[in-house]
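Structure tokens please, single chain.
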Amino acid sequence: MKKPAMKKSAKKVAAKKTLKTTAAQKAAVKVTAVQTKLATQAKKLTATRVKISDAKTKLTAKATPAARRALAAARKAFKVANAKFRSMQNDVKAAKSSLRLAQISDSVSAAEAAAKEALAATEARMQKKVSADLAAAVKKFEERWTKARSAQDAKKLKAAAKKLAAKVKATQKKAEAKVKAEGAKAAAKDKKSVVKKAPAKKAVAKKAPAKKAVAKKAPAKKAVAKKAPAKKASAKKAVAKKAPAKKAAAKKTPEAKS
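Here you go.
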């Protein structure tokens, strides 16, 4: 039961594989059929001519009414056969013309089919190349874009570096100004401290008159009083050496002389 089913399916596949008959093939079949009919009619026409010839021969041999009727009938049959022959000739011409038109149509159809196949093949090739061409195009675009972006970034970076350098310079100038100001303040403070320390030494120098009271007690012993000036003289010399450095020490020496 299964094997016949297989055969039927095989037949169906074979039927599907059969090619369609073209218009030119159909027209060629018609031309062949008309030409066959024309050949048959040509034989009939030849036969009528033979009959006419025989009728003429009989009429010439014996001119009887029957011979005359036979000749007239032969001529009539010839006319009918000749008319059919000419009609069939026209049919053959028309069939051949149709064949030529069908051939032209088939050639156009074949050209269209070939063009469609070529277009499909071209499309298939293009589809195969799409991925490769796309990758190449993307690569080229990336290279151009990266190059342009690198140039833009370089310009931006240069401008940013210039701005930052200007800011750094401005900051350095401000810092230098602040350092100078701080140095000036420190110098001013040092001067003020020096000025403030000088009066304190003067106050110490003013304490020297207390020694006068001790000197006044000296008259009790003249010998001691006489020796005291010598000590004062040596003290004065020591103070006199230090006088250039401190004004307060210089002021002590005149008081000691008095």
